[in-house]
């Protein structure tokens, strides 16, 4: 075996375990991100949308104070529920994260302007994992566009 071939063989052999390690890390990262999506979907579906959709007094009082009434409450609740479900659908996950992120920007503005920043940190905290999901699942947008073009 020549010197070049020997060094190439040594490099290839040394790279194989690193590659397997990288694959394992990537798999763990995908699983963790999917777990985060499930947790956010549960939060938006149960803790955020459900009180609005069943007109819980805590939600209806807040929307009455805003002047949006039950129509605004049901609309926001339905949007949150739709976003929660879409977070779990692979082709919609990035778009859902962006849409829920936009809702959180609106919620932050409302909290600051109307409620004097009482719970303004919550939408900002939720923006961080939503932005991560939108960024890491960006390739699903291309798949969604291909699907939409085929349907058209």
UniProtKB/TrEMBL annotation:
Where it sits in the cell: the answer is: Membrane
Q: How is the protein disposed in the membrane?
A: Multi-pass membrane protein
- TM segments? 36-54, 66-89, 95-114, 121-138
Q: Which residues form a coiled coil?
A: none
Presence of keyword Transmembrane: yes
Q: Any idea which UniProt keywords this protein has?
A: Membrane, Transmembrane, Transmembrane helix
Under the heading InterPro entries, the entry gives: DoxX (IPR032808)
Asked if Hydrolase is a keyword of the record, the answer is no
The name of this protein is: DoxX family protein
Q: What species is given as this protein's source?
A: Streptomyces rishiriensis
């Amino acid at each position: 075996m020549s010197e070049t071939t020997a060094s190439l063989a040594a490099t290839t052999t040394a790279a194989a375990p690193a590659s397997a390690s990288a694959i394992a890390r990537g798999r763990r990262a995908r699983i963790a991100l999917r777990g985060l999506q499930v947790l956010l979907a549960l939060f938006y579906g149960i803790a955020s949308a459900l009180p609005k959709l069943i007109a819980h007094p805590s939600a209806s009082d807040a929307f009455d104070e805003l002047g949006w009434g039950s129509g605004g409450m049901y609309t926001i609740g339905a949007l949150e529920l739709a976003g929660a479900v879409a977070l779990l659908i692979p082709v919609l996950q990035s778009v859902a994260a962006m849409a829920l992120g936009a809702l959180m920007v609106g919620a932050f503005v409302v909290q600051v302007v109307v409620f004097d920043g009482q719970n303004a940190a919550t939408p900002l905290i939720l923006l961080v994992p939503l932005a991560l999901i939108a960024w890491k699942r960006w390739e699903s947008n291309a798949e969604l566009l291909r699907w939409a073009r085929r349907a058209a």
